[in-house]
Amino acid sequence: MPIFVLEFFGTIHQVMGAVDTADLAFFFGPHLLGERAVSERAALSLHFAPRAGAGRRDREVRVLDGEGRLLRRWAFHGIGGIPPMLPPFAVMNQRYALVQAAVLAKGDSVVALIGGVGSPRNSVALALGGRGWRMVSGRYLVVDRVTGRTLPYQLPLELRGAALESARAAGLTDGPSDDLRPVCSPLTGSSVQVRPERLLATAAVDEALAPAALVRLCTGGAYGCRLEDWDFAPSVWPSEAAADLAAAPRMRLLMPESGGAEEAADLLDERLTAPAAKGAPPCPAVPPTPRERPAGSATRGSTPPGRRTSTRASSVGSSDPRAAAAIT
User: Fold this and answer.
1) Rounded distance, CA 82 to CA 95, Å?
2) Nearest to 65 by CA among 46, 86, 38
3) How many CB atoms lie within 10 A of CB 22?
4) Which residues are paired to 191 by β-bridges?
5) Is the CB of residue 223 less than 8 Å from the CB of residue 153?
6) Distance (Å, rounded) from C-alpha 73 to C-alpha 9?
7) Are residue 89 and residue 101 in the same domain, yes or no?
């Protein structure tokens, strides 16, 4: 039985048992280093195995430390979740803080775009990619709580709804299929998961980047986009790690109900990469109007983080095929 070797944040993990090579390669891309024939000492080992007394399809995951001691076991229901299964953040001594976000970097600037499933988060991310930004993580902001650095975590992105149609029209779903997969969910409908390397430049998995500016995406009745300083409390795992992000710059990106990703990317690129003028006062925070709400929210009023999100998609127009596909 092959043993798969993965590296996350400088830590070696072994994965063995009832797991498919293609799944590991698709979900974790450059984090997968290869295979080995025999088990060697690793910081953490994950064993995927049938559950005792359960049906053939029921599996469980066991996590062992470098000495072979069992740290945790749980039923396997898929790779996703908060925190994700790989790496097993829950047994890593709360070394890392996680926020659901798309994270990109350009030079010394790092931004975390925070929005729900129905938000234009990934649309803006791809538009930033057309302006020289690299994808650091498409789903989670990962922060080393010891160093404060932002760490790359390269999982697939999702295209859905109108965004999926735009991607198909731009040809992003054509060609080899080993780096994209169709998904059908009874909750969110049809989507396609795509490796980020297919869409834009990516950060190497061994990089350690600067702390990120946190940008909450909101939608409202406005026809244009507006970027302003805005104090908000992001949902952080573990909850006590929220204090580690207290010094992070916070902004709100207000966008129209549809479209606007290119304009939003221009605002972010200008704000986050331009040298700050000495003595310039920060942009004052303005209370939201009743029609403004976190992007992806199902309610019409201003909604606190963590509320249920909708699945409405945004559209984007661009001459760059990789930036033209609106992704949510």
Assistant:
1) 15
2) 46
3) 10
4) 160, 183
5) no
6) 22
7) no
Question: How many Cα atoms are found within 13 Å in the side-chain-facing hemisphere of 174?
Answer: 7
Same structural domain for residues 229 and 275? yes
Query: Does residue 39 share a domain with residue 177?
Result: no
Q: Name the nearest CA neighbour of 117 among 179, 183, 205.
A: 183
Task: Catalogue the long-range contacts made by 230-235 (C-beta closer than 8 Å, 24 or more residues apart).
Answer: 230/285, 231/285, 232/305, 233/305, 234/99, 234/101, 234/114, 234/305, 235/99, 235/100, 235/305, 235/306
Query: What's the pLDDT score for residue 222?
Result: 66
More confident residue, 310 or 233: 233
Q: Which of 76, 84, 83 is CA-nearest to residue 60?
A: 76
Given a contact cutoff of 8 angstroms between Cβ atoms, the answer to whether 193 and 316 are in contact is: no
CA angle (47 as vertex; 45, 49 as ends), nearest 5: 175
- Burial of 63 (C-beta count, 10 Å sphere; 0-12/13-18/19+): buried
Q: How far apart are CA 287 and CA 259, in angstroms?
A: 23
Would you call 239 helix, strand, or coil by DSSP? Answer: helix
Domain extent at residue 211: 97-324
Do 59 and 137 belong together in one domain? Answer: no
How many other C-beta atoms are found inside a 10 Å radius of the C-beta of residue 179?
17
User: Which residue type occupies 185?
Assistant: S
Residue position matching structure tokens 């063995």: 16
- Please tell me whether residues 139 and 166 are part of one structural domain: yes
Averaging pLDDT over each range in 11-20, 211-220, 274-283, 301-310, which range is the top one? 211-220
Instruction: Please tell me the distance from the alpha carbon of residue 89 to that of residue 133, in angstroms, as a whole number.
Output: 27
Q: Which range (4-18, 144-158, 163-177, 253-267) has the least confidence?
A: 163-177
Total domains, the chain: 2
At 228, list the tokens.
């302003």
Q: Please give the structure tokens belonging to residue 303.
A: 């909604």
